[in-house]
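Practice problem 4.
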């Protein structure tokens, strides 16, 4: 197992499961024969029929091996939602499943086939050590019945070849960045909670992605700047509704995909800290701050350095890693992930995939994860939070929708 993947394996705790959760929603029931065919295709991926074996010594890494007792039926559950089987019942079911771990003696994934009002939903849960969001989108595209253009890969480009002097300068810059990261103060306890075993999940209505792109163009910003600004505004509104107008900013940990770090399955990203200006009262001020900060963060050596730190944690073993993860996650309050999904509708198991949503896990001492996913011209936000956190994910989702749609009435996608 690669050291970066081992880091995510060892990060798993009962309070924060390192499991990526994806919900795929279909407007009609899936044909059982087509579904079986799709599942066999999924299980053909090596990491979907291989289990993790513990390291042979404290100085070695875990490794993958084919599960000699692999049985596809052991990874698939067919369930029905309680009446009336609508969005409220689906949200409750997703929240319950997020709180459950994966059996460590089997390949680290499970799929729930959910009979719901008007159709079927698939809830796929995959351990983060299997792959990151980019890798799992590739898996999804491989399940489609017809070829679909892959989403544009964004992130940090591979570094150019460096001469001896440039290499020394780069190492000095990394050392300086590491000192700065360690010197960061712990984040305020604004979004902190005593972590428990129960999680709550929520997701938004569809938002037209083209409208968000148009706003970003008008503001001279990126789509990510606009979305992070809307999140900052939503957090401010949600906290204010609890009687506490935010006086301090909070930090988010944001994955930065590293192109060229590897291909196929696995994890190929670093993490960067981004200050969310929740104390700013206006949308314009929040966007202005984030436009400047995101540009600086993307150009800094923090992302590649964080990837190397993750690899070092993975090689050092679980005990050392948990100390390090605690140090770094004390400096942030939430994880924010933005993943580009397929640009066009895909057909899976004989039916068009109507919508999809994903939730990335959060680690260490953090109590909230925010995931943004675009699919077929629509954007959704998914939020997972510890049940002990005062801010309710559904409340925060509504505030996020209001932030965008208030400025962009055309962003509200029509209901299908």
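Answer key:
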């Amino acid at each position: 197992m690669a050291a970066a993947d081992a880091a995510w394996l060892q990060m798993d705790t009962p309070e924060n499961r390192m499991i990526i959760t994806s919900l795929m929603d279909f407007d009609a029931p899936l044909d059982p024969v087509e579904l079986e065919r799709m599942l066999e295709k999924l299980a053909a991926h090596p990491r979907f029929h291989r289990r993790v074996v513990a390291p042979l010594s404290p100085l070695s890494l875990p490794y993958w091996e084919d599960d000699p007792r692999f049985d596809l039926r052991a990874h698939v559950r067919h369930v029905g939602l309680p009446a009336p089987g609508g969005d409220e019942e689906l949200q409750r079911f997703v929240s319950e499943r997020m709180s459950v771990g994966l059996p460590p003696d089997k390949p680290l994934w499970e799929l729930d086939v959910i009979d719901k009002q008007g159709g079927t939903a698939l809830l796929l849960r995959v351990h983060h050590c299997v792959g990151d969001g980019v890798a799992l989108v590739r898996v999804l595209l491989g399940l489609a019945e017809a070829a679909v253009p892959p989403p544009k890969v964004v992130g940090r480009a591979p570094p150019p070849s460096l001469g001896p002097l440039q290499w020394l300068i780069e190492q000095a810059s990394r050392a300086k960045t590491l000192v700065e990261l360690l010197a960061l103060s712990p984040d305020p306890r604004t979004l902190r909670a005593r972590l428990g075993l129960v999680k709550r999940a929520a997701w938004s209505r569809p938002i037209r992605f083209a409208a968000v792109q148009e706003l970003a163009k008008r503001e001279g910003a990126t789509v990510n700047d606009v979305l992070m600004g809307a999140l900052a505004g939503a957090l401010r509104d949600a906290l204010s509704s609890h009687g506490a107008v935010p006086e301090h900013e909070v930090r988010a940990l944001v994955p930065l995909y590293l192109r060229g770090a590897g291909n196929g399955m696995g994890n190929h990203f670093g993490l960067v800290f981004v200050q969310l200006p929740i104390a700013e009262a206006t949308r314009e001020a929040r966007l202005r701050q984030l436009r400047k900060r995101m540009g600086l963060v993307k150009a800094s050596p923090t992302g590649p350095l964080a990837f190397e730190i993750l690899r070092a944690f993975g090689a050092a073993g679980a005990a050392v890693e948990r100390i390090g993860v605690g140090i770094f996650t004390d400096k942030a309050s939430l994880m924010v992930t933005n993943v580009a999904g397929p640009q066009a509708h895909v057909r899976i198991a004989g039916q068009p995939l109507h919508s999809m949503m994903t939730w990335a896990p959060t680690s260490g001492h953090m109590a909230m994860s925010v995931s943004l996913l675009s699919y077929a011209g629509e954007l959704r936000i998914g939020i997972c939070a510890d049940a002990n956190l005062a801010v309710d994910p559904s409340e925060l989702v509504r505030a996020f929708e209001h932030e965008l749609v208030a400025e962009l009435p055309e962003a509200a996608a029509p209901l299908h």
